[in-house]
User: Fold these one by one.
Assistant:
Number 1:
Amino acid sequence: MARKLTAPLIIVAAVWLAATGAARAQTLQRLTVESFVLSADTLQPQVDTPFHVIVTLHVRESVSEITNLQLPMLAQLDLLGDERQTVSGPRGTQYREVVTVVAHTDGRIVIAPATLQAIDAHDGKAKQWFTNDLPLSVHSSATRIVNGVAVGLFAHVARVLAALLWLALLVGAVVLTVFLLRRRAPVASPPVVAVSYQQAPIPEAPLVSEAERRRQQIRDALLVLRAERTRSAAVRVRAAIWRVIGAPEGETLGDVLRRPGCGEGTLRDLLVALERSAFTYDEDLPGAIDDACAALERYAGSLT
Amino acid sequence: MVERQPGDLHDALAKTIVGQENVLEALLLALLCNGHVLLEGPPGLAKTLACRSLAAALEGDFKRIQFTPDLLPSDIVGTRIFDQRESSFATVLGPIFANVVLADEINRAPAKVQSALLEAMQERQVTIGPESHALPDPFVVMATMNPLDSEGTYALPIAQMDRFLMKINVGYPTREEELQILDRFAMADTQPVRRVATLDDVRSWRAAAHAVHVDEKLKRYIVDLVAITRAAQGVSVKSAGGATLKAADLIDYGASPRATLALAFLARGRALLVGRDFALPDDVRAVAAPALRHRIGFNYRLATENVSADVVIDAMIAAIPAP
C-alpha cells in the first residue's frame, strides 16, 4: 500500500556551482558540447531507498570547471548528497555530477531536464542545452515485488522476439547480397568511401528565459512551504531561494541583500520574510510562514 | 502616551555625535545588555562626549572618573571617615555610585585601582570596610583608552578586560563628518540632548532584550565562533608583507565562555535595537568582533609579522559559515 505523501519536499538543486549567479552575470564559457545526459542508476527506485541521479556532460574543450550548469528541481525527492567530478584532458572535459536522492512516496516522477548555458564554440552564440528528462517509477516494496514478476516475464518474451528479428534480418541480408552479385558483374573495384561518424547534434531547445525558470522555482518553493508549514521546510526553502539567486551558503542576510538586485523590491521582501520564518520564535512561525508564502507569490508575480 | 524605544535614545545621541555609529550602537547595547564598554582610540574622537551625551539623555546619575597614576581605590569606591560629632565611622560613597560611570583613560591608573572596578563591574556592588553597597540599577561603566600614549600607562589585566561586554575601536571621522563636526561645535554650540528616556525605560528595554528569541541554529553558530578562537589551525591570514600565516600561530589563548554569553546578549540587544524580537545571524556577525577582540590573547608574532588583530578576528569570523 502506498504511503501517503507527507509533503512534497523541495530541493532546488538549481545552481550548484559556487558562483553560478555571479557567473551568469559575467561571461558564459565557450564550449563544444558533445554529450549532455541525465540518467539514474535505477528507473524504478524503491520508496525510502536512496538512489542516484546522474548528470554527465562531455565538452571538447579542456576546462577546469563547468559553470552555468543547472540541475532540475527535484520535487518530491529528498536530497541526501551531491558529488561533482570534473576530469579534463587533451580529449576534452568530462563532468559528472551524482546526486543522491530518496523518494518518500510511490508513483511516477518525471525529473525535468538539466540545463547548461554556454557560448557555442561552433558559432559563437549564447545557447542553452538541455538533457533528456528522466521518468521514474517509484515503487513501494509490495508493488515492486508484483511488478518485478511482470517485468521478468516481459523481459523473457522480449529476448525471444529480439532473437527472431535478428535471424530474419540476417537471412534477408544474405539473400539481398546474392541477388546483387548476380545482377551486376564487377568491372572495377568500387571506390572506398570514407565514412566518418558524426554524432547526431544535441537538440537545442529554445532558450527558456531566466525569469520563467526562476518563476517555476519560486512556485515550487511556494508549494512546498504551503504543504509543509514547519521550521525545517522554511529553512530548506530559504536555502533553495538563496541558491536560485546565486548566494552561496554561509552568507548572512545582510551579505545577500548587498548583492546586486537583491536589496530592493519584492526580492528583498521575500528574503527578509524567509529569514524571519527561519529564525523567529515558535509562536510566531505560522504568521512568518504566511508572510513568506505571500512574499513568494509577490516575487513570482513580479518576474516578467 | 507613546512608548519610548531604544531608537529614540540613538537619535538623541546622533544629534550630538557626528558619525561614530559603532560607538553609539555600543553604548546602547551596553545599556540594553547590562554590560560595560571599553572604547579605544586616539584623543579627540568624541569618546568622552559620547558617554556624556548618553548620560545626559538618560534620567540618571553620571559620574566621570579621570584615571591617573596616583589614583587610589578609595577615590573610586568610597571610604569610611570618622565623624567626630557622632563619634562613629561614616561611609562616604565614591563616584562609582552612578548609573553611567565614565572611566576616562582607564589604563593610566595602576592595577590595584583598576581591580577596584572588578567587583563593581561584575558583582554590581562594592565593599567599603565591613559593608557591601549595591550599585544603582542600571549601572554602566564606559571606559576609554588611548592606544598611542603608552608611557605611564598600565595594561589592563586579562580578568579586567573580560569584564567588558565589548571593546570598540574608535576611528577617525570621514571628511564629510568632520565638516559636520565643524558646523555643530565651531559654528554653533551644540549641547547634548537631555532626558530622552528614564531609567524605567532602560529597565523595560532590558527585559525586552532578554526576551528576544535566539534560535538553536544561532546558538550553535555562536559557540562555533567562540570555539574557532581556541583552535584556529585552519584559518589563514595575510601579513602586511604578503606572507600567509596561520591564525593559530598568532594566538596564545582564545575567548572565554563569557564571550559566548556576550555574543548572545549582544545579538539580542542588536535585534531589539532594529525592532526585531528574534535574533539573526547578521546580529551575531555584527557584534562578533567587538565581543571577541579584547578576549583573545595574541602573542608577539602579531606585532612582528605586522598583522592587525582585527584582520585575524575577521578571518576567523569569515571561516564559520552563517546558518
Number 2:
Amino acid sequence: MAIMLVDVPWAVVLILLPLAGAMGCVLWPSVTKTLGLMTVFGVALSVAGLGWQLTENGALRYAVGGWGAPLGIDLYADGLSLLMLAMTALVGLGVSGYSIGYFDHKYLLRFWPLWLFLLAALNALFLSADIFNLYVTLELMGLAAVALAALSGGSAALSGAMRYLLSTLLGSLCYLFGVALLYHGFGSVDIAVLAERLEPNATAWAALALMSAGLVLKTALFPLHFWLPPAHASAPAPVSAVLSALVVKASFYILLRLWLEIFAPLGEGVSTLLGLLGAAAVLWGSLQALRQTQVKLMVAYSTVAQVGYLFLAFPLVAATGVTALNAIVYLAFSHALAKAAMFLAAGNLLRFGGHDRIADLDRVVQRLPITLSAFALAGVSIMGLPPSGGFIGKWLLLQSALSQGRWDLVAVVIIGGLLAAAYVFKVLGNAFTQAAVPHTSRAVPACMEWAALLLAIAAIVLGFMASAVLPLVAIGDPFGLLGARP
Amino acid sequence: MNTVMNTVMNAASLYGLVGAGLFCLGLYALIVHAHLLRKILAINVMGSGVFLVLVALAKRIGGGAPDPVPHAMVITGIVVAVSATALALTLMLKVATATGRAELPDDEGSE
C-alpha cells in the first residue's frame, strides 16, 4: 500500500483533479457543492502525498505522457513549489468552507467551476518546469480570476474586473515577448536548460526587462498596483481572499524562479531596483491602507504593502542566500493565510452590518466575537508580532538585512510594521464602540465565521512550525543556494 | 552567434522588427484610448506583434525548415488570445450596461 501511494504521480493529480472537478460542477449542478468540497479536500490530500514523495525522494521531475523535455511538457516540484502548493491548498480549504455560507445557490453554481479552474491553474503554475507552460498557466489563472472578480455583477465589480483583465493581459503579453526572446536567444524554454545556457547579452537583458515588467504588473508592485485595490475590494469576499492570498503570489513565484535560476548572472542592479520599489510599496501601501475608510479597501491596500516585503528580500538573496529565501517563503505563506482570514472577516462585517465603513462599525466585538478574533489574529501576523508566521518571516528578513548592514531595509520593515499596527487597530478600536447611526444587522452563518478564524489561527500556528517548515524549502536545493552558502 | 546574426539581416529580422513595432503601437493605444473596445483591440494588436516575432524567429539560420516549436507556441497563444478577447468583450458589454459608458471610471484607484 505504502509503495503504491509513493508511485502515484501526485503532481499530475493536482492538476487533473480540480480540472475534472470544475467540469463536473458544470455538468451536475445539483451536486456542485459536494463535488466542489470533495475536490478541494482531494487536492489538499494530494499536496500531502506530493510532500511525502518529495521528503522521501527529493525534487521530482515528471514527463507528462512520457514525452520528455524538448518536446513534451515537464512538471517539476521542489521545496519551493511544495510550500506554494500547500499554501494554495490551505487557503483553498478555508475559502471553500466559507463560500458555502456566503453564496446562495445561484452564485454557488457560478463560483465553484471558476474557483476550481483557478485552483487547477495555480497548481499547474507551481509545478511548471518551462517558461512557456508558465505563460499558459498564467493566462488560465488570469482569466479565471477576472471572471471571479466580476462575479457579483455590480458596476464597481465589473469596472474593477475590466481594469484587472486589461492589466493582466498586458502583463502576460510582456512576459510572452520575453519568452520569445529567450527561446530565440538560447534555444529552449526549459528553466533548467536556460539556466545553463544564459549569457549576459542584449537578448537576455531585453527578455529580463520585459518579463520582469509584466510580472511586476501582475504582482501589483508599487507603482504598478493601480488595478489591485478596486478589483480586490469590489469582488465577493471569498474571491478577494483568493486573489490577494494566492493569485498575486503566483506571478511573484514566477518572478522569483526566473530571477534566481535564469537571470542570476545579470548582476545586482535590477534586484536593487526591485528592492527599492518594494520599500516604496511597503510605505505607500501602508499609508494608503491607513487612509481608507472602508475595511475591504484597507485590506486591499495592505496587500500592496505586504507584496512590498516580498521584494525587499530580493537584493539580499544573492548575498545571504538561504536566509533571505526562507524569509520570502515565510512572508508569502503567512501573508496568504492572514490576508485570506482578513478578507473573510471583512466579508462577515459587510454581511452583518450591510456596509464596511470602519467608523460605523457598531459594537461588533460583542456581536461577532469569532470574526473579530479572526481579524485581530490575522492582524498580529500582518503586523509581524510574535508568535506568528509573519513574525518569523520578518525576523528572517531583518536577520539577512542586518548581516548585510542594510539599515535602510531594517527601518522600512519596522516602519511598515508600525503602520500595519495602526491600520489594524483603527478597525479594532471602532469595533468596540457604538456607532453614531444604529443599523439593522443580519445573521452571519457559523461556517463563515469559523473559516476566517481557522485561517487566522493557521497563520499564528505557522509561527511555531518554523523548524518543520524551513527544512522543506531546501528540498531539491532551489537555486543552488545551499551549496553556495551552507 | 552574434556575428552570424549580423550577417543574416534579412526578411526574418524585418518581420521581427515589425512585430516589435506592433507591440509598441498597441501599448501606446492601450494607454491613450479611453474606450474599452479600443483598449481590447490594442491588446490584440500587441498580441499579434508578439506572435509575428515568434513566427519570424522560427527561421533557422542557414535556410533549413523553420523551427516548429515557436509555431506551436503561436497556436497556443492564439487560442489564449481568442478566449481572453471573448471574456474582455463580454465584460465590456456588462460594464456598458451597468454604467452606461464603455469606459473605465477615473476616480477609483488612480493615483
Number 3:
Amino acid sequence: MHELSICRAIANTASDHAGSRRVSVVRLKIGHFRQVVPETLRFCWELHTRDSALAGCVLDVQYIPAVAHCNQCDAQTELVQPIVRCGTCNSSDASLVSGEEFLIESIDVHDHHPPIGDN
Amino acid sequence: MGRFHRHPDGTIHRHGEAHTDTDEHHEHRHVGDHSGYATGTERIEVLELILDENDSVADDNRHRLAEHGVRTVNLMSSPGAGKTTLLQKTIPALANQKMGILEGDIATSLDADALSDLGAQVALVNTSAGFGGECHLDAVMVRAGLDRLDLAHLDLLVIENVGNLVCPAEFDVGQDARAMVYSVTEGEEKPLKYPVMFRSADVIVVNKIDLLPYLNFDLDLFYRNVRDINPSAELFEVSATTGEGLDQWVEWLRSVARHEPTGDPATPYGV
C-alpha cells in the first residue's frame, strides 16, 4: 500500500505547480517495472483528494512498456518479465531504455471552476 | 500555450498554438457532449519524478550522514525473514565498530527492545501514524530517526526497514548500500515475483540455511532466478540462529564502514 504515499507526493507536486488555480487533470507516466497497481492508485487518489482542493481531479496514467536495447545486436525487445535480456540474440548485455518511468508529466489548471454540463 | 480539451472517451484535443488565451477568440467547435472546460484551461508541464520530494530528503540524509562519516545500509526483507535475529548476532560481532540501528516497524518496540543492550545505539521509528501504518520507511521518517541518534559517535548505521518485499524498494532513504535478507522458507520464485526489491539489493543474505535439510527448497533454482534479476549482487549463505556463515556478512559490513564503494545507492535499475 505505498500507493497512498505516492498519491500524497503527487498531490503535493500538483498543488505546488498549480498555486491558487484549480487542477482538473494530473498526467502520470508509469513504467512497466514500477510496482504500482493503477486501479489501487486511482482508488487511493480519490480517497486522498476527495476532501481537498484537488477533489474531482482526474489521474491520467500513461503506461510505458519496458524496452531493452541489445548492446550486441542492436535489437530492441519489449520485456514482460523483469529480466533484461535481448529477445533476438538472447544476450544479457542489454540496457533498459524504458520501463522505469515514474513521472508527473503535466497538469491541467483552470482559473475558474469548469461549467457544469456543456460549454 | 495551446489549448486542450478532454473528451469523455479520454482523448485530448490540442488546439492551435495561435489561439489566444481568451475564450471570446476561441473559434474551434466540437460537436457533441463536452465535459471539458470553458475558461482559462492551461496545461503546465511538470516533468518531475513522483518521488522527487522523497529523493531530495534522502539526498539530505545521505549528506548529513556523510558529514559525520557514517556509512549506512538499508536492510530489507519480508516479515519473518530474520532481519532482527541477524542483527542480534551482527552487533556483537562488530563490537569494535560504533554501530547504530534505526529500527522501523509499523507498531511496537519489540524489535528495538530485542536489539538494545547489545552495544549499539538504537532508535525506533514507528510508522503506524496515518492510514493503518506505512509499509515502508521513507526518507522523511528516517530523517526523524536520525535526530534521535548521536551521529558523531557512529561509524555504521543499519536501517532495519519495515518487513515487506514491495514498498521499501521504491523509497530511497539516504543509504549507501541496500542489503536484503531472504530466508529459504520463502520459496525459489520470489525474485521473479518481487523483482524491484531483488534488483535493488547490493547484497542478498540467504538466511535459515540450517533448515535446508528439512525443506524442498532448490537453492540452485533460487540462485538462477536471482541472477536473472540481479546479476551482480553479492550472496551470503547464513544461519542467524546457528551463526553459520555470518563472517562474510560481517566482513561486508566492515567494508562498507571502510567507505569502499557500493555501487549506485539510489536507483534499483541504475538508469
